[in-house]
């Protein structure tokens, strides 16, 4: 199986699957958003995908996350095509230039806390994540894609994942195609991936 061994196929890593989904939609030269930059893995992926003619906007409320992400981008020599904001993702529509509203190719979310960070109590929450998701749909171009990896294992994670799932379920089917990827045969809390495509006719 491409991208993974037979004992650990690639789709066990939801972030890897999210990258593959975005890669099929996001074109070089486009603009994209990493709504939760964290350690910068999605930010770097997006920056490499859009290429030197494109641009990426990244959001995080922790300066520690932005510093780690900036270092990762500089090491890959793609930092000039990324703008980072020390701000919550619910502010993305305010921060992104109006010329790009309705023109983004992709928006990626990775919820929870900063892995390896000094403050694991600083987590994403439904009261800011849900407005951010609405802003992301508004900012996407027709045919664009939103991906979201949610985690249920930490305090507050299950409630947020459930809120996001309910949000996706209520999206109008004539404007969006929403899918949820999760495990069927695991008992402990596991991550899950939600993908929303904005239909071309939207």
UniProtKB/TrEMBL annotation:
InterPro entries: MnmM_MeTrfase, SAM-dependent_MTases_sf
Keywords for the protein's UniProt record, in alphabetical order: Methyltransferase, Transferase
Keyword Methyltransferase among UniProt keywords: yes
Claim: Metal-binding is one of the keywords in the record: no
GO MF terms, alphabetically ordered: methyltransferase activity
Superkingdom field: Bacteria
One GO biological process term: methylation
Pfam entry (one): rRNA_methylase
Protein name listed in UniProt: Putative rRNA methylase
Species of the source: Rhodothermus profundi
């Amino acid at each position: 199986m491409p991208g993974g061994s037979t004992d650990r196929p690639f789709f066990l890593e939801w972030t890897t699957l999210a990258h593959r989904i975005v890669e099929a939609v996001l074109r070089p030269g486009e603009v994209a958003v990493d709504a939760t930059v964290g350690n910068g893995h999605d930010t770097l992926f997006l920056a490499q995908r859009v290429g030197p003619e494109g641009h990426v906007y990244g959001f995080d409320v922790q300066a520690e996350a932005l510093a780690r992400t900036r270092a990762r981008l500089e090491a890959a020599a793609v930092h000039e095509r990324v703008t980072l904001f020390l701000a919550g993702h619910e502010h993305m529509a305010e921060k992104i230039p109006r010329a790009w509203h309705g023109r983004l190719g992709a928006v990626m979310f990775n919820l929870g806390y900063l892995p390896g960070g000094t403050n694991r109590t600083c987590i994403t929450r439904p009261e800011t994540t849900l407005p951010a998701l609405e802003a992301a749909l508004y900012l996407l171009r027709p045919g664009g894609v939103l991906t979201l990896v949610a985690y249920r294992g930490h305090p507050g994670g299950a409630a947020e994942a459930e809120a996001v799932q309910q949000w996706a379920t209520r999206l109008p089917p004539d404007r969006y195609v929403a899918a949820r990827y999760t495990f069927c045969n695991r008992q402990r809390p596991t991550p899950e991936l939600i993908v929303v495509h904005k239909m071309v006719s939207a």
